[in-house]
Input
Amino acid sequence: MTFLNQTEQIAACIGFILMWAVHLWYSLSYLRLLHEQKRQIDDNKATAISNETAKTVGISIVLPVFNAEDQLAHHLPLLLNQEYERFEIIVVDQNSTDGTLALLEKFEKQYDHLRHTFIPDSARYVSKHNLALTLGIKSAHYEWILIGSADCVPSSSCWLKSMAVFLTSDKDIVFGYTHFALDKTPKKEMFIQFYRQMYSLSWCMDHPAYHASLCNLFYRKSCFIQNNGFASCCNLNYGGEEILVNHQSNHQNTAVCLLPDTFLMREFPGRKQCKQERIFELETAHYLNRKMMYRLRFFAGLLIPWLFYLCFLVGILGSIIGQNWILTGVYFVLTLVLCGIKDKWYHQTSRAFQAGTCHVIFHWFELALPIWLAVAWIKHYFTDKKLFYKKYI
Output
């Protein structure tokens, strides 16, 4: 008795070919950001107006910090020395206990476009992070706000100048790309960071923003004030800015900038911090709009590789037990071709976006990703929800 009879083998073969085609089509998503980046680079109109735009658009960079003396010492000069005319940096100290204050006072004597303030340690009922951002945004001199982070550094001195091309009158929200430092980041965390940004930024090109990197986010001050800032999530410890842009983004007022000069590099915060951030993002997701459509498409993408390899295993076992060696060869050849194409497409994009390389292990990462995310979901489920919110005093 064979594992599969002839009819079942034909059905398994057809199912495998269909999943092969679906998997190949899905793998085109790895090229989406790369093609959009090339389009933006080749856009002669954007290049032609960049110099004029840089002279007219004012930008305020708001940095909430806590015990960030070392990070500011290395990163702040790179922000302050941008080749851009109209910008300021507002650092909001959340009562640091290290040398952050002394360092800021030192830099303020050297740079006229740097200001700093602080929030009181007795702040109640509201997240200190949200309060720091609110204070910084409301004190900003310019309309466009960059909500930044002390552990991020621009990839170029032309970062603001290149980003300003996208800060047009018809946009309220502009996302940039952020990657981890290659020399300090485990390949697993680099892959997760790149994969999630690849998907979320691609989503922003066709839909209102759902989730995107918040280290390189430009947002209008007037929109923040008109929509009462973080009023809907004032006591949430993490993700207030994500909720803000999710609620106010639409396809017309949101843009994604992928020019290489506009990348930000983030210091790797450690495995524990990355895992904690993923758990906090799951709590933030309760407040986001349009979650059903985004999640269905995202999880479908996670399951396609698993379904493909399941069809491969069923087909290959049936062909081997039935001694149909030609069909066995077809399964192996098509699978190797698909893996080779995916590997090429993925690494073309990952190199262009400074996400490193992980050739053979990339396929394992793709299969392991839904498991890692499921682990984060389980940990979130059993985490005390008081951790996510500002404690009432």
Observations:
- Residues 6-29+294-383 form one domain.
- The beta strands are 59-65, 87-93, 114-118, 144-147, 152-154, 173-175, 178-180, 217-220, 254-256, 264-266.
- DSSP finds 14 helices and ten strands in the chain.
